[in-house]
């Protein structure tokens, strides 16, 4: 842009009032028309304004004056284009008539400055103003003008704009606003990050373009070059501790064969396996990884991952060695190592190829995953890791290590023969996926309060096979999974004589499988070392629980029933109920009457008529007045079989009932016993104001051929059906139905089988199939609460003499057959 700068003076032109009718009160434009006056009676008040016309430069100011006659001199109101006081687009005017033109215009713009009598608003006078652009040329300058960068290196550019008050610029790389992964990216503040791979045309243009004048810009030249492999920056964290075994020589290398996964979907990785990028030798990488002490291989590894992704997917191969990777957290945004879909990380074995993930900012992480570092699989499908170790490079902070938290609708993730050393990092976290395989891997976590070593939650078709897990606190979380198999794993937890009851540890234990459907827990070994002897309310080896009140809704009595509906005119259901029914797989179960024990999934709720609609018709329509419960099964169709549990504060505990569950052939040693428990209690009105009570159920459960023994005298050995009433009104309706207890062997503490164990509900050893416990003042008859309880062919090595207090709970009167 070139033009002559005009001196900053205001030119006055005398125009007749008739000329003023050619200007209007709209937005500024080269041609503005004034509205036509409406005929009215002559006003006694007249106003004249001066100057009547003006030509001025953008940003200048001009004083207007108004002379008012025929009024008590109440003053005038000043407007610009019909807006009192004006605005930034057309200019502003003060109460005293000082007009300031807009700071910038691109072409000559006309506007109207008007004064209106406050005494007679119909009396006004106006002036025509032409605002011209500042004649100073707009120029943009950029620094630096030339720069040479390595892949993934960062350079901050700055730009200045002269000849315009608007100093803002847009940043482009090779003509693309913001750039992209091929040519590098640039932020709004001018921070440029070079691409991970050297482009085919390695000289790039970074452009700063004026927002005010898009024809004005400045360009810097950026050259991307390979870096000598010996000059990589040092890692931000130390090398691995001496306890990590030294790397072994690279074995004879062959391409990865996905058939080793042993799953039906392994063939989906066949084409991916054909494209392998060796991080140490691939000539397309600049630099290449070195796996040397003091060398940070982050840039090379990010480039290899991008190369695999940009070529349709591939295997990023790590020959034997220790690779230092910086994947930092950050309060303003983490910089994790992102693994896209169809990219697989592979090594020469977990003892040979080891990734040390260094996070110098781990302490800045929050629960918001935007701040996380580590290895990020979020949103990625057909991806995984095999034959690698992943080692947290810091022992002091709880950053993320391997995770995909926040993923939805992804598929085919595997972690095969890997070693994960979490140190104090967050749990290994996988969610939102269909087809998940974790097998033949080891996990170590000495963390005190990070929730446990593994969190695989909210997935479908999950196989967790032959893994070894060593940890101190927390659990192995496997909740909310459909079609889950957990087989052949070894869990070893060192409780360090700390526990939840003692308030010296977080909630901890073995496997948690709450809200699972179609679950198999087979042939696992679960052991707790150094558990506090008095720990009783925690430390379950295998458990499910109703840990969140939002999944349990209500208990009431039917006021009307059809073949596919149930109505309760006394219910409190509203928007919260409607929302939770849409979110959780709620069912309605009948507690009393001829349909007791029948349940169906809820299809919808009408909160106005207080009616539940079922997904299928009742087999037997309940009577009006029948009690019902609305809840979510904490376990639906599960087999817990042939597991060995040793030294755990609790054994197998299904805290809030289950449907179609089999507990069979398990061996429990010094791990208390097997508990099937349901509860009736009041709801927390603050958490769920639309509910009245919660009532669990256990239906169609088999507890068969288990061995339960106590050879330490620390914890009682027992098998119990525990129905507890905590609602102050009473316990009403069925709690357990169609339960079979058969072929179990129980071995109390031989040295003192009559011993009473303090501070626990189940304070003695034995079988308790009718344990009806709680402070409720009135209860339904025992055989109303326990229905069709079969108890036969169970044995106990030593009889137990029960205390007067406890003998009431040792009854078997609810069973249909004697031992």
Secondary-structure map:
Blueprint: H1 17-20, E1 46-50, E2 53-57, E3 61-63, E4 65-69, E5 76-80, E6 83-84, E7 86-87, E8 91-93, E9 98-100, E10 109-117, E11 124-132, E12 139-143, E13 146-149, E14 154-156, E15 158-162, E16 169-173, E17 176-177, E18 179-180, E19 184-186, E20 191-193, E21 203-210, E22 217-224, H2 270-273, E23 276-278, H3 298-310, E24 314-318, E25 321-326, E26 337-338, E27 343-347, E28 353-358, E29 375-376, E30 383-386, E31 389-392, E32 402-403, E33 410-416, E34 419-421, E35 428-431, E36 433-439, E37 442-445, E38 454-457, E39 460-465, E40 468-471, E41 476-477, E42 482-487, E43 490-494, E44 511-512, E45 516-522, E46 525-529, E47 540-544, E48 554-557, E49 560-561, E50 565-567, H4 575-583, E51 587-590, E52 599-606, E53 611-614, E54 627-631, E55 635-641, E56 644-646, E57 650-654, E58 659-664, E59 667-669, E60 674-682, E61 693-695, E62 698-704, E63 707-709, E64 718-725, E65 736-742, E66 745-747, E67 766-773, H5 782-785, E68 786-792, E69 795-796
Parallel strand pairs: 2-11, 13-22, 23-24, 24-27, 25-28, 26-29, 27-30, 28-31, 29-32, 30-33, 31-34, 33-36, 34-37, 35-38, 36-39, 37-40, 38-41, 39-42, 40-43, 41-44, 42-45, 43-46, 44-47, 45-55, 46-56, 47-57, 55-58, 56-59, 57-60, 58-62, 59-63, 60-64, 62-65, 63-66, 64-67, 65-68, 66-69
Antiparallel strand pairs: 1-4, 3-9, 5-6, 5-10, 7-8, 8-9, 10-11, 12-15, 14-20, 16-17, 16-21, 18-19, 19-20, 21-22, 48-54, 49-50, 50-53, 51-52, 51-54, 52-53, 60-61
